[in-house]
Amino acid sequence: MAFDGIFLHLMKNEITDKLVGFRVDKIYQPSKEELMLTFRTFDGTEKLLLSAKAECPRVQLTTQFVENPKKPPMLTMLLRKHLGGAKLREIRQDGFERIVTFVFDATNDLGDPVTFDLVAEIMGRHSNIILVDENGVIVDCVKKIDELTSSVREVLPGIPYELPPQQSKRNVLEYDIHELESSINALGIKKSLAYQEVLQGISPIVARELEYGMTLEELREHIKNPEPTVVIVDKPKDYTYFKPRQYGELAQYRTFDTFSELIDYYYFEQVRRERIKQRSNDLFHRLTVLQERSVRKAINRKRELKECENKEQLKICGDLINSNLYRLEKGAAFYELENYYDGGKLLRIKADVTLTPAQNAQKYYKDYRKKQVAESKLKAFIAEAEQEAAYLESVIDMLSRAETDGEITAIRTELYEAGFISKRNVKRGREKKLPPKRFLSSEGFEIAVGRNNMQNDELTLKTAKNYDLWFHVKDTPGSHVIVTAEKEREFTDKLIREAAMLAVVHSKAYASSNVAVDYTIVKNVHKPNGAKFGMVIYDNYKTEYVTPNEEELSEVKEIE
Predict the structure, then answer these.
(1) Does position 427 have pLDDT exceeding 70, yes or no?
(2) 232 sits in which H/E element
(3) Model pTM score
């Protein structure tokens, strides 16, 4: 990915403008290799995320919700002790090196002023986050590197902090362009590789762009006047600080106002979603197997039900044999009798040679009653299997949109309550109850969206009031959406459209256009006895047809 030294430099400038001069408010550790520091600024709370994860190392400001462990790790406690309330004095970076140092003015236990450096090394799988005291000694770090792990440099608490080995590359803003080009040409290797050998802080996408035809002068201009851009080839593929030309017509581009917004989009909306899906793969597999089994069960039962369609013919055979007992004898393989149910036409009836005519008649009656009972039971079995398949499809849809571990845990809990998985597959201990997603419409109405089927039930059947407005995509798995009614305010067409779009976005039809969304007041929504979680019936409804529109949805703000 393109979080190179130049990108880091531009991000550093962005963070400097927002945070320097302000104090640390709270410190969290969302995962083993990530830190989150919040600051109270004139513009409100700002969240600084530092990640040393090999697959997505970065520093950024974020507006995304990040789950934190209930019990803070030891590193978090230590950081709170030293940096809690500390003022961010400056952020340093040597040229376009992939290392930034956050310099904090703090106080020790005696109230004396002290300085701490929080160093973020953004170097792929070698990334690290290190707290260093004013004497240059490591206090603690995210990744501890001993001599067995690396023969180049140790990173351990209690030893002096040393920078990683320098590569002596050149800063494109500081060196003469002709001199740089001479050095690049002199290497005699593929141009994109040569650019990376000579220039400081450029990633493969930038090197390829230089090989493709961008000049060093243009690169300088892009650094001075950056344009945060995500490259999309079917899905987000890369990002940088200008619109690259190397992809030609294959790519689309999405630009952002800030680099932090770009990174939020790229990592939180793409990488994190993929990571959550990977964590829930076992659940996806089990649900898919169960859902396919329910579908097959319904198909097989329908096949059996079709065989019951001839049950009336069995009764007719019994009646005809009974009415002709006086002239029938034991031992016949079949009887040819006039069918008075069908205008006296001859009907050939198969008989058991070992049975008397009366016994053959009773056998036909028995088979008739058997199929009559089977038909009634099969209809119930089919309805149950189809409802089960629809429910499991809705859970699969919810799981595909799960964005946090908490949402996956809630889905596992729901499946346990519904009897589809065992208790051992559900996390033990008291889990914090996950609230519905909440939004504020462009006109200030509060909108709630269920995250799973149990929450859909609670939201619609317990929390919502009779005259709140309920939305759901027609005949498609998805979330229940509730608009809270307000006294002396009418539901506007714009509100209905925005709520309908939220219903589509939070459903299996999220990628479709002109989607039908039913809506009615909550009073008209009911749950049938024995129905699965999230399954309801409703009447007196209207239908809105919408295609999710990014521009319109941008006016709807999510509330944390």
Answers:
(1) no
(2) strand 229-233
(3) 0.56
Q: Counting Cβ atoms within 10 Å, is residue 191 exposed (0-12), middle (13-18) or buried (19+)?
A: middle
What's the rounded Cα separation, in Å, for the pair 231 and 203?
Answer: 14
Per-residue pLDDT reduced to its tens digit, 450-464: 999 999 999 999 999
Choosing among 3.10.129.10, 3.40.1160.10, 3.30.420.10, 2.30.310.10, the CATH entry for 5-141 is: 2.30.310.10
Residue 1 reports pLDDT greater than 60: no
Give the dihedral of Cα atoms 371, 374, 380, 385; nearest 10 deg. Answer: -110
**Hey, CA dihedral for 143, 148, 153, 159, is it positive or negative?**
positive
Q: Which residue intervals of 135-240 are DSSP H helices? A: 177-186, 191-198, 204-212, 216-224
Nearest-angstrom CA–CA distance, 17 and 46: 12
Residue labelled with tokens 């700002």: 46
Half-sphere exposure (Cβ direction) of 457: Cα atoms closer than 13 Å = 11
Summarised one tens digit per residue, pLDDT across range 112-146 is: 999 999 999 999 999 999 999 999 999 999 999 99
Amino acid at 540: N
Contact of 59 with 15, CB cutoff 8 Å: yes
Tokens 């529109």 locate to 549
pLDDT band at 41 (very low <50, low <70, confident <90, very high): very high
Domain ranges, ordered by start, for the chain: 5-141, 177-279, 285-397, 435-559
Apex 55 CA angle, 98 and 407, nearest 5: 130
Q: What is the pLDDT of residues 46-94, one digit of tens each?
A: 999 999 998 889 999 998 888 888 899 999 999 999 999 999 999 999 9
Report how far apart the first and last C-alpha atoms of the chain are (Å, whole number): 29
